[in-house]
Amino acid sequence: MPDETDDELYLRAGALQQARRFAEAAEIYQRLANRALTLRLAVNLGVCLGELGEHRRAIGYLERAARHSPGQQPVRRALAGAYAEAGAIGPAEREFRAALDLDPRDKTTQLAFAGFCLSLGRYAEAWPLFDARVELNPGVIPPVAAGFPEWRGEPVEGRSVLVWVEQGFGDKIQMARFTNTLKARGAARVVLGCNPPLTHLFTTLAGADELVTVALGQAVEVDPCDYWTRYFSLPARLGVTLETLPAEPYLSAPPDRLAHWRGFGDGARIGLAWKASPTGFNAANKGLPDDLARRLLGAGAVSLQPEDTGAADFADTAAIIAGLDLVISIDTSLAHLAGAMGKPCWTLLPQIHCDWRWLRGRSDCPWYPTMRLYRQTAPRDWTQTVEQVIADLAADGLGPGLGAP
Fold first, then answer.
1. Which residues on neighbouring strands pair with residue 328, listed in sequence order?
2. I need a surface site. Which of 120, 192, 372, 404 has the fewest CB within 10 A?
3. pTM of the predicted model, to two decimals?
4. Is residue 107 within a helix (H) or strand (E), and if so which, with residue range?
């Protein structure tokens, strides 16, 4: 079989990159770059290295690309993202602003800069830019065809507001708190769209007067309201900052489910969620390896994975959590649920693409005061993080006997 040409190698690397097989793609890009470094090679190699957590090398290639083509917005945006991942805040902001100067209307850059600002707690600056998500992600942010206007922050006293679905379960759990804020501002009726697994849980949400259950891809008729909005538009329209963030518990287990799940796990005190949805954001970096999960399951802890508990929906999971002393979870919807219930929760965060909502460099979480954050110390290596959790369990009297199998 004849050797592949450089063009064929580049196409194969691109296919591997699209399939998120970044190590294999980077190896091919590196071979090609060693022969002749082009702009497209520098950018793609830099992006792949960043996805592998090799920040210094990623920045090196992307800086070379930016020096070569300073007027290329995607290059400046990629370099900004690499700086942000590496924690180089000043250079990241410089490059984001340079990218926006090249095209202030570019939605991809707006959304990337919004996430950067949110991770720094600069909410007032970030929320308006975050609206770019709607146009960029129609698959998870369905369009709204309503005969009444979108809410832009007008007074809601005596008015009715429809809050419509977007994004994942954890996102909805996190943002559902703002229905209480709408009611506190005098809204006469708050109608909340939600997916079937959340419906029974959201009956405990004080701020929602009516729930509209809608399955993925389903179209439903909704009674007219004065305004409509989306979950993640609420903090912008409400002017939410870190200082005004409502953080008291706002969800609980429905009473009928509490009775059903009483005694789950033979009186276990700790629950563990360690598997990420394979289709969720950053799934490859969020989950714990099974061998490390077994260490945390070693002394009385129980699995909270739905396939192990038999929970049919989030109301069931809430009832299970209600009977625990502590939840340990990766960055998943279960962590949001525990936090929204006011349950102590230790959340394990990946180093690569750590989500903006957990901010930077903090072990506490303003969104959930009962949450403690454990940050991965090396890309894709959870060993030290799990060791710290085990040590803290022992120190808190929650985990005697936890350790190596």
1. 272, 346
2. 404
3. 0.94
4. helix 107-119
pLDDT at 278 (0 to 100): 83
Total count of residues recorded for the chain: 405
Phi/psi of residue 268, each to 5°?
Answer: -60, 145
Distance of CA 98 to the CA centre of its chain: 26
DSSP string, 240-283: --TTT---S------HHHHHHHTTGGGG-SEEEE----TTSTTH
CA distance 217 to 138: 11
| 35-74 CB burial, b ≥16 within 10 A, e <16 | eebeeebbbbbbbbbbbbbbbebbbbbbbbbbeeeeebbe
> pLDDT value at position 382?
97
Please give the distance of CA 229 from its chain centroid, rounded to a whole number. 20
Unique residue bearing structure tokens 């809608």:
214
Where does 252-399 have alpha helices with state H?
255-261, 283-286, 290-296, 306-309, 314-322, 333-341, 383-395
The residue type found at 20 is R
SS (H, E, C) 156-176: CECCEEEEECCCCHHHHHHHC
Round to whole Å and give the CA distance between 117 and 111: 10
Element of type H or E holding 195: none
| Those residues with Cβ within 8 angstroms of residue 27's Cβ, 6 or more apart along the chain or in another chain | none
Parallel, antiparallel, or unpaired for β 345-349 and 371-375?
Answer: parallel
- The half-sphere exposure of 43 on its side-chain side, counting CA atoms within 13 A, is 18
Q: Could you give the angle at the alpha carbon of 241 between the alpha carbons of 243 and 126, nearest 5°?
A: 150
Average pLDDT across each block of 10 residues of the chain; the chain has 405 residues. List them in order. Answer: 84 96 97 95 98 97 97 97 98 98 97 98 96 94 93 97 96 98 98 97 98 89 96 97 95 94 83 90 92 87 93 97 96 97 98 97 97 95 95 83 45
Q: Cβ(366)–Cβ(247) under 8 Å?
A: yes
